[in-house]
Amino acid sequence: MRKVAFWVVAIAAVAGVLASTVPASGPADEEAVPIFGIKIPPGYRDWKLISVAHEEGNLNDIRAILGNDVAIKAYREGKLPFPEGTVIARIAWDYVPSEENNKVFGRAQSFVPGPAPDWYLQFMVKDSKKYAATGGWGYAQFNKDGKPADEAKLKTCFPCHEPIKARDFVFTRYAP
């Protein structure tokens, strides 16, 4: 029971840190990504939290997965496939140790968000007609300056999501 309580507190703390370290909105004059034509949705940083995650290996980042109202409703209802208009956002930060926290704990155990990696912001947009060739989803990726990824990088999105077709191509599960 103590382990469960620890993890609940740890996840809540990470979500709080993530929410407090990001500005309220993205760049005002962002460009649309090639292929999919997606721009950074206004107000996306105010969306609700779906989950948090840590990627190891080459990425070694910590991420907040956010959803618009359509996405949150679908997640809460366990609805698959996701309805039209669903938008899921992923914001990432480098995963770094907290020396300050570790001094308090007496050992290395605390990690916090660090600087944003080069490609820190991604979106999935559900529009079955517009994005029929990619499972009904459009993909977008932006660097920390709000510049969109090029066409070659965007062409890697759908092949990565294709193996999870049974979950409507979405990796993240809802963490209520």
List the helices and strands and how they pair.
Blueprint: H1 2-20, E1 48-55, E2 61-67, H2 69-77, E3 87-97, H3 99-105, E4 111-113, E5 121-126, E6 137-142, H4 151-154, H5 157-161
Write up this protein.
- The chain is of the alpha+beta class and 176 residues long.
- The protein has one domain (2-167).
- Helix content is 25%, strand content 23%.
- Strands 1, 2, 3, 4, 5 and 6 form a 6-stranded antiparallel β-sheet that branches.
- The two termini are 18 Å apart.
TL;DR of this structure?
By secondary structure, this protein is of the alpha+beta class. The protein has helices at about 1-20, 70-75, 100-105, 150-155, 155-160; strands at about 50-55, 60-65, 85-95, 110-115, 120-125, 135-140. It has one domain (about 1-165).
Intertermini distance: 18 Å
Low-confidence stretches: 1-28
Could you estimate the helical fraction of the residues in percent?
25-40%
Strand content: 15-25%
Q: How many separate domains make up the residues?
A: 1
Largest sheet: 6 strands, antiparallel
Globally, the shape reads globular
List how many beta strands DSSP finds: 6
What's the gyration radius in Å? 17 Å
Key descriptive features of the protein:
176 residues, alpha+beta
